[in-house]
Structure formats: structure tokens, C-alpha cells
Amino acid sequence: MKSLPPHHPSLATTYINIGLVYNDKGEYDKALEYYEKALEIEMKSLPQYHPSLATTYSNIGLVYNDKGEYDKALEYYEKALEVDMKSLPQYHPSLATTYSNIGLVYNDKGEYDKALEYYEKALEIDMKSLPSYHPSLATTYSNIGLVYNDKGEYDKALEYYEKALEIEMKSLPPHHPSLATTYINIGLVYNDKGEYDKALE
Questions:
Q1: Burial of 151 (0-12, 13-18, 19+ CB in 10 A)
Q2: pLDDT tens digits along 72-85
Q3: Which of 122, 51, 128 is nearest to 87 (CA)?
Q4: Which pLDDT score is estimated for 2?
């Protein structure tokens, strides 16, 4: 740290990496402390709409979401979205990720229609920017399935989980954890529907 000026972008990267470790450990306030140091440096050393700013805003949004502070999470994800929309092409996968992050917060808040609105924007980008069997596409289908399950629309949930499963079976190794998660999600929907034999399958 002595060899770099106090607002050098590499220092911001180091702070972000430290923040990631604290977030993974569940030490959210420490994570925020380091992300905010990184953000301060980036705001002084980078152009206003640099993609790195969007990433840092998203990291901060993630911490607030993990803390259950959904409105603060949305505030930072919306800042990330503003940067993404001004700095990235219309169908860039990072834009889809930001839409998905916002969708996740709305789902956690129980605002399912808003969650679907953002997940569907993410899906549109994923379908235009990724190969048809890309695992990120499966993740977006799973996210949409989760919202429909939370809404009690079980057949719609199954429709999206099965799309996710089809992609995962073609794009992932047979014992990948994402496959197990999707099978569990499908089983939970059948359980919620009261179809216990199907759930056990």
C-alpha cells in the first residue's frame, strides 16, 4: 500500500477482494467498510460510468441484500444498472446479471411481479447474448421458477425449472451441484402441490 498513491485503482481492487472475503464470512459490516473504500477510490479515479463502478455498486447491493436491508440493496443495484446502461451494449450479459440482482431483491421482499419484470429483462438479454445451452440461462430460468413457486403458481414454476434442467443436463457434468439444486426445486414444487410421490422422484 505504501508503493501506490492513495487513489490508485489497484488499491480499489485490493479493497474489493478483502470485502469479498468478509462478505463470504458473513461479516457484512466489514465487507461494506472495504467496498466503500473501493468505491471512494473508483469515484475519484475512474470515469463516471466506468463498468468497475457498476461492479462495486453491485457488491454493496449484495451485502445489503444479505443483511435483509432490501431498500438499500435496491438503491445500489439501481446505481449499478444506471452505469451498466450507459457503459455497456444493450444485450451485454453483465446487464442481465444486474437485472437478476434487482429481481432477487424484489423476490426477497415478496414483490413477485416486480421480481418477474426484472428476471424477464435478464432472460431477454441472456437469450440474445448467450448460447442456447449456457448455464447462466438455466440460472435465469430457475430464478423465474422460484418466483412462480413463491406466488403459488406451481405449473408455471415447473415449466421454468424444467427449462433450467434441460439446459443443465446438456451443459454441466452429471454430478454438478446446480443439477441437484434444480432437482430439489422441482421436488419442492411437487411437494407444495401435494403430489408427494412425484416429489420423492
A1: middle
A2: 999 999 999 999 99
A3: 51
A4: 60
Instruction: Report angle CA 94, 99, 103 to the nearest 5 degrees.
Output: 145
pTM of the model: 0.90
Q: What is the pLDDT of residues 17-35, one digit of tens each?
A: 999 999 999 999 999 999 9
CA distance 180 to 9: 40
Name the CA dihedral angle for 33, 27, 97, 173, rounded to a multiple of 10 degrees. Answer: 140
Full set of structural domains in the chain with CATH: 1-87 (1.25.40.10), 108-201 (1.25.40.10)
Write the DSSP assignment of 125-188 as a string of letters. Answer: HHHHHS-TT-HHHHHHHHHHHHHHHHHT-HHHHHHHHHHHHHHHHHHS-TT-HHHHHHHHHHHH
Asked if the model's pLDDT at residue 65 lies above 90, the reply is yes
Radius of gyration over every alpha carbon of the chain, rounded to an integer in angstroms: 19
Provide the strand spans (E) within 61-158. Answer: none
Q: Are 92 and 125 in contact (CB under 8 A)?
A: yes
